[in-house]
Write the structure tokens for this entry.
Amino acid sequence: MAKDKLTDYAAKRSFGATPEPAPAPLAPRKGPLLFVIQQHAARRMHYDLRLECDGVLKSWAVPKGAVARS
């Protein structure tokens, strides 16, 4: 299932045009799931939140100044 999602994603991208590496499945491992918070200076500075799910890092953009509300 995760492999199909990566294949679909890679087909939509031109990895020769950007420095971002092509996706690769994570090796099976034990322990906590992976997460990454990356500062991303695009047209507007924001943060990317990536959470591991089904062996793939799923990504959400979090705008600068976004506040969690309960």
